[in-house]
Design goal:
The protein has helices spanning 17-28, 41-52, 68-82, 105-129, 153-173, 200-206, 215-226, and strands at residues 8-11, 32-37, 58-62, 85-90, 130-139, 179-185, 237-240. The protein is an alpha/beta fold and 246 residues long. It has a single domain (8-240), classed as NAD(P)-binding Rossmann-like Domain (Rossmann fold). Helix 1 (17-28) runs parallel beside helix 2, helix 3 (68-82) packs parallel to helix 4 (105-129) and helix 4 packs parallel to helix 5. The protein is globular, with a radius of gyration of 17 Å.
């Protein structure tokens, strides 16, 4: 059993979608959970209630991932509330898809702030509070490997940055037994990319298995990396994309 009983995890952007599925799965494996959310307090409260129904403690922290001070504060509040921090899942993300000529400076700045700076700031803050043997896991994207449509230049660039960050942090923190990995989901059935959306049939055709993932399937890989069975896996990027990039 890849249990993490008695540990604490912070999942950024954990109020819905993949983040909520990750938070619930880690709770089911024994961890107390903090999540961050930006706007939807009601959805965050629902996720907290689901976590608490497993018997674990839960905390929702409002934080805009584009604000480094709020990111640092979320890490500190998690560690202070639960008395420890063992797992950080950098899930909060900004999804901007547009033709190159139409990208605005504001879109570029926010995407890079949320998808690149925030994971680095969170990792920096977490490393100072994290127990030896901790885990840092990023949520990347399959478009770091294969771009099926035009318009992904900004988003792909931001998620590709996580790969270099993951490898460098794995090297830097490995002496403390802290592993750092990135999971690349493919098409996943969420509100932002529903399996019955207008492009769903086309997207399914790019996968080897012919379907979308459910958030719980991505969460299962994150949970594996968070547990003791993955103690020798670090600096890795793992696709959970149904063969999209095969």
């Amino acid at each position: 059993m890849n249990r993490i009983d008695g540990k604490t995890a912070l999942v950024t952007g954990g109020g819905r979608g993949i983040g909520a599925a990750v938070a619930l799965r880690l709770a089911e494996q024994g961890a107390d959970i903090a999540i961050t959310y930006h706007r939807d307090a009601a959805r965050a409260a629902e996720t907290v209630a689901r976590i608490e129904s497993t018997g674990r403690r839960a905390l929702a922290v409002r934080a805009d991932a584009a604000d480094p001070d709020e990111v640092r504060a979320a890490v500190a509040r998690t560690a202070d509330t639960f008395g420890r921090l063992d797992v950080l899942v950098n899930n909060a993300g900004e999804f901007q898809v547009a033709p190159l000529a139409e990208l605005t400076p504001e879109q570029i700045d926010r995407t890079l702030a949320v998808n690149v700076r925030a994971p680095l700031v969170a990792a920096q803050a977490a490393a100072g509070r994290m127990t030896d043997g901790g885990r840092i896991i990023g949520i990347g994207s399959n478009v770091t490997t294969y771009i099926p449509f035009p318009g992904f230049s900004l988003y792909s660039a931001s998620k590709t940055a996580l790969i270099g960050m993951t490898k460098a942090l794995a090297r830097e923190l490995g002496g403390r037994g802290i592993t750092v990995n990135v999971v690349h989901p493919g098409a996943t059935n969420t509100e932002l990319n529903p399996a019955d959306g207008p492009m769903a049939d086309t997207i399914r055709g790019y996968t080897a298995v012919g379907r979308y993932a459910e958030p719980a399937e991505v969460a299962a890989m994150v949970a594996h990396l968070a547990g003791p069975d993955a103690a020798y896996v670090t600096g890795a990027q793992i696709a959970v994309d149904g063969g999209f990039t095969s």
